[in-house]
Amino acid sequence: MQHAVGSPLPPPHQPGHGPAPGWSPAAHHPGPHPGVPQGPLPVPPAAPAHPGPPPHPAQAPAHAPAPEAPGHVPPPAGAPVPGAPPAPDPATTTLAVLLIGPAGAGKTSVAKYWADHRRAPTAHISLDDVREWVRSGFADPQAGWNDNSEAQYRLARRTCGFAARNFLANGISCILDDAVFPDRPVVGLGGWKRHVGPGLLPVVILPGLDIVLERNAERTGNRRLTDEEVARIHGRMAGWYGSGLPIIDNSQLDIPETARVLDEVLARSLASPPKW
Fold first, then answer.
1. CA gap 162, 180 in Å, rounded
2. What is the pLDDT of residue 222?
3. Quick check: 248 pLDDT over 90?
């Protein structure tokens, strides 16, 4: 029998078999068909269950969790594995260093050597060099400390700070050196922090007085001070002890050895910045 419209009838039902795969009576019979008796459709008997042997362990579901080791607590799904972050490498990190020390401590020589031998691009900014840019009208503190020499030192510090920020903004590290006194925190260390930024890493180089006097005697020009002035500055620098800043005694160290110790100090300062 054929129908002009509608879906074809399902295959004849055979006892002991379920509906044809992929076929649903409701989907194919939305309404009565002419000539088809109405009423509940016969329910075919359920297929007999045939219990089989248990599955082989190799056939176990792939998603079954592996047995936990005694005492092991797995981390939550998606949680990061805890661990210490890698310590920054002072040889390649872009940073700003302030080398503090009295006249004759060797801070300028160490700063130049350290900047020359870093793997990362680094600039050396010397306060004395910038201060001596003033040619006509230069106020030499050796002739007596006055308002003009004080103003020129402050101008040199601001200029060095501006240069340091400019270098850092372009991915170039910098090291500055200055004779910063601990008993003038606002003008000295505080001023450098304002000029360069809070990430500045100060390190003090402070050899013994006899070493400072010996090195100062080898200096020439207006950078050579009297022994009395050197001793006075060295005594004031002793106030850095107990300040929390790292201090390097380079009395028995040459320039390369001092630069190596400086790298070690900076590595600790990067891992745990000093409070200042």
1. 18
2. 75
3. yes
Q: Structure tokens of 33? A: 């068909």
Rounded to an integer, the average pLDDT of 220-228 is: 84
| 39: Cα within 13 Å, side-chain hemisphere | 4
Mean pLDDT over all residues of the chain? 78
Domains within the chain, CATH numbers bracketed: 96-270 (3.40.50.300)
Strand order across the 173-178 sheet: 122-126, 173-178, 96-100, 201-205, 247-248
Q: How far apart are the first and last CA of the chain?
A: 100
- Six-digit token pair at 98? 């302030």
Tally of CB atoms within 10 A around 226: 10
pLDDT (0 to 100) of residue 85: 55
Question: Which residues have C-beta within 8 Å of that of residue 140, sequence separation ≥ 6?
Answer: 149, 222
Spatial neighbors of 70 by CB under 8 A, at least 6 apart, are: none
- Which are the contacts of 9, defined by CB distance < 8 A and separation ≥ 6? 33
DSSP one-letter code for 1: -
The number of beta carbons lying within 10 Å of the beta carbon of residue 201 is 21
